[in-house]
Amino acid sequence: MARPSYWTVEVRDRPRSGTQVRLYQAAGYRRYWDGEMARSLCRNCRLRPGAWSVPKRKVHALFLAAARIASQLESQKELPMSQLAIAAEDTESLPDRSREPWRSLAQRLRDHGLIPTRPRLLIAERVYSGPNHFTAEDLFTHLRSGRCRCARATIYNTLSEFAEQKLVQVLYVDNGPAIYDRTTAPHAHVYNMDTGEIRDADPQEFHLTEPRLPEGIMLEDMQIVLRVRDKNKEKGHV
Known about the structure:
Blueprint: E1 6-14, E2 18-24, E3 30-34, H1 35-45, E4 50-55, H2 56-75, H3 81-84, H4 100-111, H5 118-129, E5 133-134, H6 136-144, H7 152-164, E6 169-171, E7 179-181, E8 188-192, E9 198-200, E10 224-228
Parallel strand pairs: 8-10
Antiparallel strand pairs: 1-2, 1-4, 2-3, 5-7, 6-7, 8-9
Helix pairs in contact: 1-2, 4-5, 6-7
Pfam family, one: FUR
Protein name: Fe2+ or Zn2+ uptake regulation protein
Organism: Natronospira proteinivora
């Protein structure tokens, strides 16, 4: 029975050079990580300063963790302006495929305290150029049809961030999925219970006024949904 191949893992944490993770074996193969990558690797794999031998199976787990962390760090990196237009290859509705629309989106995200990462820019572009009302699954389906795809979890998390920063508002109708609306100012909605369609109420048909609140209280959110049915359809019949 062949003996397992052992590697040496060395973690250095020095004031001037920072954290470093070194992986090497007797045959001469070496791999180094430093900076945020090394710090994240130490946190995820519970590595402490020192040097010790590990079997090949643990080295494989270390490489998998490093690949996952590298992907996460890349997705959180702010795109330089020279690369903002690359994401435009996935869009169909941008009238101007220059960098200017992406500069505007990037600045809007920054104004709301969000780093304009590639996934956020792709999602924000669809939010502001697509239908006014949409679900996370609608967004996932659209982005999946393009060249640059976002994971379903990334879309849900990003939309939650957008809602928290008041870039979109969230509507909950009956027991259906959350519906996102890019119009954040208070306004009423009309929900057709027969078709599932939701739209903004016409201000001429339904005038929404801000209620009078006690002193010291401010309005945080207001949602009014008018549920309607087709007059020609009786309840319980198609």
